[in-house]
Backbone:
């Protein structure tokens, strides 16, 4: 919501690429800024960040560190412990962290670009603190407000905080009303119409008389018998087995860099309902109306060209999709409002997560046409198989063949496991069952 408020006010504050480095809680506070850089002098120096940590005297601070170098840490467990002792709320690093288990074990939130094992000592030094700096293209000043959660990190200028909060509350209120409308069974194409977003800009909140129905209107679009049959073929498979079958048949189907939002225990299977997004026109077009046409059991597959600067899926779409019996969503791009999808166990597979809306940035360019996802072509009604390992696409006309080979490969691997459990060496088990030929073309 804060990202949306910044958008309305035309303020830069949303960042991309700074993610929680463990399953961190949300943090909100005021920035204590620190700039680091490559060490050039040979003389010993104080360890970076330590003077700033020692100087903190209030309990509302979040350390904001810029200038980190790829592959080299500028955070570790000792400074995490020291920060916690000073009641610092967390750390945002435009760089890397190591010893992340140490931060996690004491419950200290760390957000950054990633983790590494390489120490900052004699590589990175503190250049200055308390000054304005750049974090992922956003200017952050000492005392600015910081909000970080599973979707990413937002910075709000201190002098604009009341304005941003007021607008954010109105956006949140409007979103809550939209969810009520969805629960009442109203088509999402009406709920998410541009006029609804324009209402956010009104100065006062308005009460809603929208009733919440006990149950939403049932999705009238049932899965076809063939869709049910083809999906059932893969219900007991997993993506590694299907991937091996695709390899054996010489079919490219593994969607590169499309990963699960959570560590799903089961497999998501269904025919692809394809959606292609394009840059927004002037005036902008539709962003989510297509979902009213998606059948029960379908997997929504969205081609946003791999864009990571704006989202095409959020909590209202998640809620509506769940109510309509849609099997899951795959996005060559990013999503937001991830807490709802994770908490409600709605399967989402994406190239990342961010908080900035796609409204007025992208629009639907076409549905149920050939698209590309993670370097793989997807035709409408191809079979999507997705789990904690990633996403594979099975051409519809080869689905039965792929499923049969995947079943044989998985059976062979089960037999190998049994032989190993019975005392055989892995080499013996593999040789006996021809493991090295299971995925080989032929």
Residues:
């Amino acid at each position: 919501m804060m990202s949306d408020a910044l958008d309305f006010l035309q303020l830069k504050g949303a960042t991309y690429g700074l993610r929680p480095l463990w399953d961190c809680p949300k943090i909100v506070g005021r920035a204590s800024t620190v700039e680091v850089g490559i060490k050039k002098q040979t003389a010993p120096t104080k360890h970076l960040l330590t003077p700033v940590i020692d100087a903190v005297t209030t309990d509302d601070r979040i350390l904001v560190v810029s200038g980190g170098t790829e592959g080299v840490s500028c955070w570790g467990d000792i400074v995490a412990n020291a920060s916690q002792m000073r009641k610092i709320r967390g750390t945002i690093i435009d760089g890397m962290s190591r010893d992340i288990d140490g931060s996690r074990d004491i419950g200290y939130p760390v957000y950054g670009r990633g983790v590494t094992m390489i120490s900052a000592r004699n590589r990175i030094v503190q250049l200055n603190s308390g000054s304005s700096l750049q974090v992922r293209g956003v200017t952050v000043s000492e005392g600015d407000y910081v909000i970080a959660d599973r979707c990413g990190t937002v910075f709000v200028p201190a002098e604009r905080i009341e304005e941003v909060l007021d607008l954010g509350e109105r956006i949140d209120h409007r979103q809550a009303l939209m969810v009520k409308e969805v629960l009442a069974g109203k088509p999402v194409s009406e709920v998410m119409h541009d006029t609804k977003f324009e209402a956010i800009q009104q100065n006062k909140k308005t009460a809603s008389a929208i009733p919440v129905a006990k149950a939403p209107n049932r999705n009238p679009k049932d899965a076809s018998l063939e869709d049910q049959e083809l999906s059932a073929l893969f219900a007991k498979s997993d993506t590694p087995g299907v991937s091996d079958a695709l390899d054996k048949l010489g079919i490219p189907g593994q969607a590169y860099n499309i990963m699960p939002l959570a560590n799903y225990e089961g497999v998501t299977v269904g025919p692809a309902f394809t959606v292609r997004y394009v840059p927004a026109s002037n005036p902008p077009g539709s962003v989510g109306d297509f979902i009213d046409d998606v059948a029960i059991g379908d997997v929504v597959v969205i081609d946003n060209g791999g864009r990571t600067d704006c989202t095409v899926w959020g909590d209202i779409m998640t809620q509506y999709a769940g109510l309509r019996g849609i099997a899951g969503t795959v996005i060559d791009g990013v999503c937001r409002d991830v807490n709802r999808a994770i908490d409600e166990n709605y399967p989402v597979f994406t190239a990342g997560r961010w908080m900035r809306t796609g409204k007025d940035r992208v629009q639907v360019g076409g549905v149920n046409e050939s698209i590309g996802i993670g370097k793989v072509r997807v035709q409408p009604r191809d079979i999507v198989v997705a789990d904690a390992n990633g996403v594979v696409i099975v051409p519809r006309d080869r689905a039965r063949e792929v499923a049969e080979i995947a079943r044989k490969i998985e059976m062979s691997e089960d037999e190998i496991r049994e032989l190993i459990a019975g005392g055989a060496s892995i080499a013996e088990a593999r040789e006996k069952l021809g493991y090295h030929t299971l995925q080989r073309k032929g």
About this structure: The CA atoms of residues 26 and 149 lie 4 Å apart.
